[in-house]
Amino acid sequence: MVGIETMMSLFATAVVLALVPGPDNLFVLTQSVLQGRWAGLMATLGFSTGLIFHTLAVTLGVAAIFQTSHLAFTLLKIFGAAYLLYLAWRYLRMPMIEPGSVSIPPLEPWQFYRRGIIMNVTNPKVSLFFLAFLPQFADPQAGSVVWQMIVFGLLFILATLLVFGGLALLAGAVSPWLNRKPRLQRGIYWVAALIFVVLAVRLMLAQPA
Predict the structure, then answer these.
(1) What is the CA radius of gyration of the chain?
(2) Helix, strand, coil fractions of the chain, as percent rounded to 5
(3) No. of helices (H) and no. of strands (E), the chain
(4) By the 8 A CB rule, do 18 and 25 touch?
(5) From CA 77, how far away is CA 124, in angstroms rounded?
(6) Short-list 81, 62, 83, CA closest to 72
(7) End-to-end distance of the chain based on CA atoms, in angstroms?
(8) Are 68 and 137 in contact (CB under 8 A)?
(9) Cα distance between residue 50 and residue 163, in whole Å
(10) Taking the CB of residue 206, how many other CB atoms lie within 10 A of it?
């Protein structure tokens, strides 16, 4: 059985990693600021669902494919980059909400959830990270390594939920004030679009380590 010290060490490391600026937490921040805290929370749930995929991929050895197959790695990152560019285009086309005007119908919660899943699953670097990170805490003498990988993945997901959820709540507090500032709102839309473009370029330049 996995020791409590090992689980606490992994959880603490996961919390620190979740706080490091990256594509996922930047996405949660922008969604929360622009669309409200529920958008960020649903995106967080989407990312967490994607992490379940990566946990299973590592547990079953599927992630190793991306380490050995250049074609599989390239195709997945192209799809992910294309989706990020699509989101950037959506924000560039988003109209401003004038104070007192009829607001734009908000997206459904499942749409933010879906975006989170797609962004996370289509980033092959996450699987490669899990492939390198999770086994460091495994101990063959502590029982089934497969179950240890699943436990470690769930702990990482819990840390992500707590950190990203907190970021969504904090950033979401700005959203009502932002909706009363149309010009600032337009600037944030452009900044969000730029962030997605940068993340798309960064993903395209990623190489399997």
Answers:
(1) 18
(2) 80, 0, 20
(3) 10, 0
(4) yes
(5) 7
(6) 62
(7) 31
(8) no
(9) 16
(10) 17
| Chain CA centroid to CA 169, Å | 16
Which class for 30: exposed (0-12), middle (13-18), buried (19 or more C-beta within 10 A)?
buried
Residue identified by tokens 């470690």 is 152
The first and second tokens of residue 17, run together, are: 């990693």
**What is the rounded CA–CA span in Å between residue 158 and residue 44?**
11
By residue range, what is the domain housing residue 90? 4-205
Total tally of structural domains belonging to the chain? 1
Instruction: Match 């990020």 to its residue by tokens.
Output: 84
pLDDT per residue rounded down to tens, the chain (209 residues):
677 888 898 898 889 888 876 778 888 888 888 788 888 999 999 999 999 998 988 888 766 666 677 777 787 778 778 877 887 887 777 655 444 333 444 567 788 999 899 988 888 778 877 877 777 777 777 777 788 888 999 999 999 999 999 999 988 887 666 556 666 666 767 776 787 788 778 778 877 65
